[in-house]
Amino acid sequence: QVQLVESGGGLVQAGGSLRLSCAASGRTFSSAVMGWFRQAPGKEREFVTAIIWSGWSGGSTYYADSVKGRFTISRNNGKNTVYLQMNSLKPEDTAVYYCAARESRAGVVGNPATYEYWGQGTQVTVSS
């Protein structure tokens, strides 16, 4: 079993930056997918970014078009933590952000149904 705990959300003005953290505990894994999703009020949960970790060769990253060039996902295996650096934030980025993880590298990284573990979410609010 894996537990995920997000932190770092808050209120920021448009154009500002935030860094979210997701700390994993309970069991470590070196070949797995970790991702970030978000859900705005009245909308479905949507894919933001994911990293497929390959151990010694590093990881492959994937981004939704809406955040490409502004958001960066990274992983610190030594700390079992994944980060989401969000720059040039826009009001439309306002949502609850969820960290997710899965054991298998197979499958579409943008499909939330393929993830086995979820954090409780952290609110990000971007004011205009």
Quickly list its features.
single chain, 128 residues, mainly beta, four-stranded antiparallel β-sheet
Protein described:
The structure is a single chain. This protein is mainly β and 128 residues long. The chain is built from no helices and eleven strands. It has strands spanning 3-7, 10-13, 18-25, 33-39, 46-53, 59-63, 71-76, 81-86, 95-102, 117-118, 122-127. The protein starts with a strand and ends with a strand.
Please provide a brief summary of the model.
The protein has 128 residues and is mostly beta strands. 0% of the residues lie in helices and 51% in strands. It is globular and about 40 Å long.
N-to-C terminal Cα separation, in Å? 40 Å
The percentage helix is under 10%
Helical stretch count?
Answer: 0
* Shape call: globular
- CA radius of gyration is 14 Å
The count of strands amounts to: 11
Structural class: mainly beta
Largest β sheet strand count, sense and barrel closure: 7 strands, mixed
**Mean pLDDT figure:** 92
Topology pattern, helix = H, strand = E: EEEEEEEEEEE
Poorly predicted regions are: none
Task: Please state roughly what percent of the residues sit in beta strands, choosing from under 5%, 5-15%, 15-25%, 25-35%, 35-45% or over 45%.
Answer: over 45%
